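ingest -> validate -> predict -> emit
validate: passed (alphabet ok, no gaps, 627 aa)
predict: started
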Amino acid sequence: MEKYLFSLLLTLLPLVTKASPIEINGIFYELISKSKTAEVTYAEGVENYTMYYRGDIVIPSTIEYEGINYSVVKIARFAFYGSYLLNSISLPEGITSIGENAFQGCYALTSLNFPSSLKEIREEAFSGCAITSANLPEGLETIEAKVFQNSSIESAVIPNSVQSIKASAFYNCKFLKALTIGNNVTTIEQSAFQNCEMLVTLILPNSITSIGNSAFADCKSLESATIGNGVTSLGKEAFKNCSSLTSINIPDNVTVMGESCFEGCKGMSAITVGNSITEIPKNAFKGCSGMTTISLGNSLLTIGETAFNGCSELGAVVLPNSTKKINSSAFGGCSSMSSFTIGNSLTSIGSHCFSGSGLTSIDIPDNVTTIGEGAFYNCSQLVNANIGKGIKELDRELFMYCSSLNTVILPENLTRLGSSVFQYCTSLSTISIPNGVTYLGFGLFTCSGLTSIVIPNSVNDIEERAFSQCEKLTSIVIPNGVYKVYQYTFYGCSSLTSVVIPETVDYIALRAFGGCKELTDVYCYAKNVPGIEPEAFKDSYIDYATLHVPSSSLEDYKIADTWKNFGKILALTAEDPGPSGLYSTQITGLATPSVYYSIDGKQSSQAQHGLNIIRMNDGSIRKIMVK
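emit:
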C-alpha cells in the first residue's frame, strides 16, 4: 500500500527537468542544465526503493556529469521517503531547500546536519524521523507544517530568521525537552508543539503576537510558560491539558482567549488575567482542579459557559465591576469557593452558574436582573441568600439541594417562584413570601424543612407538589383567589394539623392532602362544595378529623362524596370563625377584620406569625395565634 501511495504521489510531481534522474555514486539526482544545479531525488525505477538508501550517506556539494559540474542545492520532495535503513546523512553547504516529505518515515535516521545555507524546510520533511536535535541555522526563513511531527527530536533551536512556526511543525515530538524560539517569530500556528510530553519550560519572545489553536496542548510536563508582551491572542485549547503548569500570567497585551485555552491544567494554582481581556471564553479554565486564586482584569465583561467549572480548590472570588454577564455553569463544582463578590455592573447569572460550589452566603445586588435555573443547585454549604430587587422571578431549581440554607431574603417586587426552587432545602424552616407573588411552582418546597409559612393573598396558583413532604409543617392557610388544589400539593405533610381552604377553591385533586397523618381540623369556606377526588385525603385519617364549613352549606358537605368521610362536620359560627378569621367575610353576619396589630403594636395588612390583635369592623377586639 505504501509503495502504491508513493508511486501515485510521484505522478503528481511537476516536470521541471529536461532529463530523467541519473545515478552517481549510489545517489540519484535531477540535473537542471540551465542553472547547472542538481537536486537529490528518489531512486527512480528501483524495486523496494525504501531499502535502497541505507547506512551513512554523504551528499557532495558538487557532482560531475558528462564533463559538466553541477552544484547540489536541494533535497527534492520524497527524495529519501520511507528509507527506514538510513542511519545518518551529511548535507553540504550550498543546500538551500529540503522538499516535502524528503525524509519522512526514515525511522532509523538519527544524525543529520543542517547547513548554514539552508533557507527552507518544506512540509513533513522529517516527519517520523529518529533525529534528536534540530539546531536550525540562522538564515533559515521557512519551517512549513508538520516538518518534525512524530520525530524523536529532543532539542530544537528556532533561529531569529524564522517568522512563523507552521501548523503541527513539532506535533507529537514526545522527547522534546529544550526549545529556543528566535526573537523574530511572530506566529505559532495550530498544534505546532502539541503533545510534546517532555517539554518543561517555555519562554516566548516578545515578537510573538499570536499563539494558535492547541499550539502547546497536551504538553504534560510543562511547568512554566512565559507569554511575551507582544502576544495579543491565545487560540482555542492553546495550553489545554498542560497538567504540570503551575501558574500563568496573561499580560495586558492579550485581548483574545480561545475556548478551553487552559482547560485541564490541573497543577495550576494561580492565574492572573490581564486588563485587556473582555471575555473569558467557554471552558477556559475548566478542570483546573489545583487553582486556588485568580485575579481578574478590570475590562472583563463576560465569563463564558463552564469557564471555571471543576476548579475544586478555588477560594474566594471577587468579580470586577466591569463584568456584566456570567454564563451557565461558569463556577459549577468549585467546592472550596466559600464566597463570591458580585460587582455593580453584573446583570445576568446563567443557569447552574454556582452549582455544587462551596458558597456559604450570597448577596445578589439590585443590578442583577436575571438568574438562570439551578444557579445555586446543590450548594450544600450555603446558609444565607439575599436576592436583590432586580429579580422578579426565581427560576426552577434555583436553590434545590441547598441543605444548609436557613435564611432567604426575597425582593418585594417578586412575582413568581418557579418549580423546585427550595426543594430539599432541609434546613429552611421559615420564609417570608412577598405580597405580589402570584405563582408557586411545581415542587417548590418539596422535602424542605418548613415549619410554618404565610402564603400572601396575591397568590392565585399553587402547582402540584409545591409543599409535598414538608414533614415539619404544622398548619397552612391557602389564600383567597386560589381555585384548585392540585394533586400531591401537600402530600406527606405528616405534621400538618390544620388546613384553611378558601371560598374560591372549586376542586381538590388526587392526594392533595394525602399522608397528612396528624390532620385534626380542615376549615373549608367554600359555600359551593368543591369537587374532590376520592383519594384527596388518602392516609390522612380524616375519620378522626373535624371539617368546619359555612353553616349554609353544612348539609351539602354531609352528603358529598369524600367530604362526608370526616369524623365530624361542624358549622363555622361567630364563636368558631376558624383559626385566623381571615375568611370570616364568607360567613354571613360575622364581623370582619379591619386592622391587624402585632404584640408590640405594629400595624399590618394581614395576620403575621405569632400573636395578632385584630380590630373588627364592628369595633370589637380579638386575639388570634398564627403558627
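The mean pLDDT is 91.
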